[in-house]
Amino acid sequence: MAARVASDIPPGSYVNLGIGQPTLIADYLAPADGVVLHTENGMLGMGPAARGDEVDLDLTNAGKVPVTELPGASYFHHADSFAMMRGGHLDVCVLGAFQVSYVGDLANWHTGAPGAIPAVGGAMDLAIGAKSVYVMMTLFAKDGAVKLVPACTYPLTGLRCVNRVYTAESVIDCGPDGAVITETFGIGADELLARLTA
Fold first, then answer.
1. What's the distance, CA 39 to chain centroid?
2. Any idea which residues carry the catalytic annotation?
3. Can you tell me the distance from the alpha carbon of 198 to that of 193, in angstroms, rounded to the nearest whole number?
């Protein structure tokens, strides 16, 4: 999935990769494409995940995963990082999600479970500030419930902000006219549609 998302990121883009699965995308970006990765904790020019002797515990992404830095990497205050996110300076962000609606509403920070600690973090800033919002998620929850829904039932992160959803089964575009399956993997579009609307 990470490789598939990486193939859709335009060369020269400024990109934020959300916590969790989206961080894997860094390992599949071609250096020649000049994609510049931003982390909300204050770095431009993040490289792939750090391994072995590359690990420096002072050099992490927003998910606290050790990362590498590319030549020209820079560091800045957290407030400046959020100004970049809110100011429309990111071309793409890739986030995880609990639910995405057909028209691109995003719910990715809280399931509404009683007693759960709310922690929306920077997701709402990224969802509204980035020019394109991609979601990388499982299409079905552990209980089999579909996560691409007519309307989100979990608390919203952003309205009509998701452009594209990537799952192990498919790539789905979202927009004002609804969701469109554009690509499938190991399953036919008709069979996938039947599972989504069951």
1. 12
2. 40
3. 8
